[in-house]
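Regression test case RT-17, inverse folding.

Input:
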């Protein structure tokens, strides 16, 4: 599918001689009119991507291996994607109402596995603990986050009937900026970041959503502010990013870190550059975040960030030494770490 990709190397950036070299190679999608936010990395070579206008694609090494543009899905914005292997993936739409589709043959056919057009439904993200068990969440309904679960690899979904699910604050909701405001950790723990209220908070469950607690964070509160993305390097150390997308140059409350499994959160010593919509780690201690102001990298669990480029993207994913960035109008870039 090389005709769909034009390679334009725009920068090779190194942090310092004492750190691994981080390179950003920009690639422009020339025949796909889609803004892409959903990303999921299967391996160093295979990454799934989804976005507006019903777009789903698979990057295999440096090529767009295959993609779909189904006319029935053209009005949908697939903000999140989760893949199990080269052939199986689940895509989730954001906006008024939600549909979730699953493919088991590498995008050739898709099965509708969930649909909800209820008033107020706006899904923000999903994640899985394993190949069978996962959760997805929507903005609040009746002052509580609306959460669904699957126990069969996404073939079916049911509303999660939780106990002690805390009420949301006035204006509090999730953000679907990159589908990464939720993360499953270990066997049973799940974290959901929120914003928009008087306090930006993290909802935590240690038993796959049966019971919950909620903790405050020092992330920027208020309208359009809060946690847009979070990730955990291990069961104790996590990082949340966000800020305010209407005040994107401000670093006020745009990052928080935890060292105790999300029970307490602190501001970093050196924050990222402005509003950030996604954060990811490579499994080897390197964190990358991206947003309207470009890309920042951290080598010390999010406590200090270094700005490496002003080139802006919506989402990022990285595994080992390679990863991807996606953005507006089919803008895509590859990350390599040497």
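Golden output:
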């Amino acid at each position: 599918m090389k005709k769909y990709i034009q390679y334009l190397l725009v920068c090779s950036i190194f942090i310092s001689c004492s750190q691994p070299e981080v390179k950003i190679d920009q690639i422009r999608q020339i025949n796909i009119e889609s803004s892409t936010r959903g990303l999921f990395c299967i391996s160093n070579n295979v990454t799934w991507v989804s976005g507006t206008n019903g777009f789903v694609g698979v990057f295999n090494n440096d090529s767009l291996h295959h993609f779909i543009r189904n006319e029935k899905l053209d009005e949908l914005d697939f903000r999140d994607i989760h893949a199990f292997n080269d052939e199986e993936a689940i895509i989730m739409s954001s906006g008024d109402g939600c549909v979730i589709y699953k493919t088991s043959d590498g995008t050739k056919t898709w099965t509708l596995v969930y649909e909800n057009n209820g008033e107020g439904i706006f899904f923000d993200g999903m994640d899985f603990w394993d190949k069978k068990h996962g959760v997805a969440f929507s903005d609040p309904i009746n002052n509580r986050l609306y959460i669904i679960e699957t126990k069969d690899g996404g073939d079916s979904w049911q509303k999660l009937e939780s106990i002690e699910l805390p009420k949301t604050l006035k204006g509090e909701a999730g953000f679907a900026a990159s589908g990464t405001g939720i993360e499953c950790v270990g066997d049973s723990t799940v974290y959901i970041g929120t914003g928009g209220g008087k306090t930006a908070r993290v909802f935590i469950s240690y038993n796959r959503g049966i019971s919950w607690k909620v903790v405050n964070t020092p992330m920027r509160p208020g309208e359009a502010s809060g946690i847009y993305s979070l990730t955990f390097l291990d069961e104790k150390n996590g990082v949340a990013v966000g800020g305010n997308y209407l005040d994107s140059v401000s670093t006020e409350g745009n990052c928080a870190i935890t060292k105790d499994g999300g029970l307490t959160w602190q501001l970093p010593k050196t924050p990222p550059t402005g509003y950030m919509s996604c954060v990811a780690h490579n499994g080897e201690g390197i964190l990358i975040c991206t947003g309207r102001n470009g890309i920042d990298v951290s080598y010390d669990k999010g406590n200090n960030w270094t700005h490496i480029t002003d080139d802006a993207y919506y989402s990022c994913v990285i595994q080992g030494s390679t990863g991807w960035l996606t953005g507006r109008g089919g803008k895509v870039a590859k990350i390599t770490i040497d």
